[in-house]
Amino acid sequence: MYLQITKLNKDFQTKNGTLVVLKDINMTIKQGEFICAVGASGSGKSTLLRQIAGLDNPTSGEVRIDGEVITGPGPDRGMVFQHYTLYPWMNVQENTEFGLKLQGVPKKVRKEQASYYLSVVGLANFAKSLPKELSGGMKQRAAIARALASEPKVLLMDEPFGALDIHTKESMHEFMLDLWQRTKITVFMITHDVEEAVFLSNRIYALGARPGTVRKEITVKLPDRSHSVKRHTIFHDYRDELMELLRKHGQEATAVAA
User: Where are the domains of the chain?
Assistant: First the structure.
């Protein structure tokens, strides 16, 4: 599997004229990679994710998955949002089966598939629980299980841990790395959290703002992915490089806007 983004541009028409949100975006994501796109507000991160998800069409350029141009949503892309988007009247099992039900998957098959992924994310014992009975981290695990149940080629994540407290977020980071290593799923995640991106990803695309452009592609090579690596010099070097990039291009964007 590979995801290819080529010369992607996205404009919006406003009462003040044309607003260029994404400009000349080029990215390649290969099977089994964990990729993060990092940028401040105004860098078009969410707009970029919507193009990949097929929720919106580019002004020009294209997004391909396995050579096929993306023209709309599809089961080959699973989506996880910052806010859990679980249906409150459905229990965890029903939420996890929901996408499969829409696809017309037979009841027995979708139950087995959903149960398997609830086991993978550690929620097998909470299958009959309602979302209101779960913690924030557990809700996000349920949302991830639902996205994985359709067995997509790539998991798209829209700042999935942004609403969690720091301790839950760190726990979810470790969970996500373990899940990625066990399932070999391809992940494309957007975030504004630089440390999160360095800790989780094997490659990072740093986005500048107004318009959103790829300023730099960084390959991350850490000695390990344990929590203690955050104290390592090389982790600090990656973090500081990204922070400086975002700070510099944030100042440039502010100067242009002024």
Answer: 1-76+154-228+248-258, 84-151
